[in-house]
Amino acid sequence: LRSRPLRVSSSGMVNPDKLGTEKGAAEVAPLVSVVLPTYNRAELVTRAVDSVMAQTYPNLELIVVVDGSTDDTMQRLHAYQSRANIVYQSNAGLGAARNKGISVARGRYIAFLDDDDLWLPDKIHVQVDFFIRHPECSMVCAATAPVTKPETPMDEILALRSGSGIVDHPLRQKVAGRLLIVPSSIMYDREKAPGAAFYPARGCLEDITFIVDVACAGEFGVAGDPPLVLYNEGTARSLAADAGSWILGAQHMRRLLAEGKLGPETGPMAADTRELVAFIARTAAVRCLHAGRFADGVNIYLRELFPQLRLGRWRFVVGFPLIMLRPTICGAPRR
Known about the structure:
Number of strands: 13
Distance between the termini: 54 Å
Order of helices and strands: HEHEHEHEEHEEHEHEHEEHHHHEE
């Protein structure tokens, strides 16, 4: 799928007044900033960079944030210095590295690519074209497929969109497990969500705050038909490490919600945000059981009892104690 040619403006930025008009779309190719964080993945990151360099879209800037890598990442990236902005920082974690890239980015539209994922050549072109035709959008994603099955989307993103390509209530669709919103598929309009940022703490579902901020700032669009992002599923983490990230994520999200720093306070998106936070907490509690962290699971359950009751999550409220009565959970000894 190829979009109509776009001409690059002298400033590299698009006039917002021209967005959504046929004339403006034909004349200007807005600058798109690509943020690619990496840490000790020298063999993989150059493949990701090459997939950015192969994009058919004419006006890109690539920002590679090297998050304190101790391998030969910097040496391997040396060949790209004339075509990419290579930023080195002390190791601070994935969320902080993405935020660093956002702070350096010059484009109105910003896309993210993880160092072990890949883009097909038309990915950025298709997303920009969608943004120009749908200026009401704050975020536009493309279908994502596993590297091992490049033609099979990982979620139901293509079925969820309307005839115009818009997905209603994306946060609720994420709670239902129908929409993943993989960071490598995201492009967002920073003018609509200027304060959007990833949570800087390590290992705590750092992308959730960003997704909520951007999703609440406009419509959620889906660009293209075949998958344009190839996702590397990698090596599964240990159950304990996986549970730990969900525990921290649940704690951070609950605190931000209580402080009024996550999503709007009223309206449909406020309700969707509360549902998402409750889902994260439920998942954290259950994953604690699978990891044998029963005390952590019980603590989350007790903290979540009333919020879950208010949302009518009776299956969790009643079912979690019943699961606890079993002598073992997935073979994990009770402790």
